[in-house]
Design goal:
- It is an enzyme of class 3 (hydrolase).
- It comes from Thalassobacter stenotrophicus.
- Keywords: Hydrolase, Metal-binding, Metalloprotease, Protease, Zinc.
- This is Metalloprotease LoiP.
- The chain has 231 residues and is of the alpha+beta class.
- It has one domain.
- It has eight helices and four strands.
- It has a four-stranded mixed β-sheet.
- The chain is globular and about 60 Å long.
- Bound molecules: zinc ion.
Length: 231
């Protein structure tokens, strides 16, 4: 029993971290957000809601500047104030912003947002357990190897989530009569809007897949859908 106690402690630590960060995220979002009331965006979310056969899609504005969309673990969808500002400034169209809402809806529908919170804090537990175990085998490099392994695992999980959410969004946009054009255009704009052109770190280590790969995946879906007989 005593032998396993470091691992047990690491697991308890991970669980506590998860509880705490879930609570803190929810609290922060509550305090710094309001429901978006924009007629242009509402018109588009209305057609998406109709396509999904649900009464309405609520979108919230999170009062921070970095351009981003977010799906909270409780299923709420957020756009940052900075993102909305880009729309108001004419840098992003309403349809493009709607594609972000569709993408975040995908994360919610596919259960990513909840899992991601677990992933994020679960990562700490995995990191500590790996570091403890590897530290015995490799006294000097163990922690480094544990960190690298955890990062690669996390990056792979989140890249997969992005492709799945993109596919969900593409299907929803098509069904709502908006097509995949806005989604692809937004992905291309996103590189400049978020201020990182995807240079530097190798693609497989970054949490987001390369824009060109994401656009190509959407185009592949589009090609498959348009080949189907009309019906
Ligand atoms: Zn995403």
């Amino acid at each position: 029993m005593l032998k396993f106690s470091p691992i047990l402690l690491a697991l308890i630590y991970g669980l506590v971290m998860y509880r705490f960060s879930a609570w803190r995220t929810a609290k922060m979002l509550d305090q710094q957000s309001t429901e978006l009331a924009d007629p242009e965006i509402a018109r588009l979310t209305k057609s998406m809601a109709k396509a999904l056969d649900i009464p309405r899609i609520r979108v919230h504005i999170y009062e921070i500047e970095p351009v981003n969309g977010l799906a909270a673990p409780d299923g709420r969808i957020f756009l940052t104030r900075g993102f909305y500002r880009k729309f108001k400034a004419g840098e992003v169209t309403a349809e493009e912003l709607a594609s972000v809402v569709a993408h975040e809806l995908g994360h919610v529908a596919l259960g990513h947002s909840r899992r991601r919170m677990i992933d994020f804090s679960g990562q700490n537990a995995i990191r500590v357990v790996l570091a403890t175990v590897l530290g015995r085998i490799l006294p000097f490099g163990g922690v480094w190897v544990a960190n690298a392994l955890t990062s690669i695992l996390a990056a792979r999980l989140s890249r997969q989530d992005e492709y799945e959410a993109d596919a969900y969004a593409a299907a929803l946009m098509v069904k709502a009569g908006l097509g995949t054009g806005p989604q692809k255009r937004l992905l291309e704009k996103l590189e400049t809007l978020t201020g990182m052109g995807g240079r530097g770190a190798p693609a497989w280590l970054m949490s987001h897949p390369k824009t060109a790969d994401r656009v190509a995946a959407i185009e592949a879906l589009d090609a498959r859908w348009t080949k189907l007989p009309e019906g």
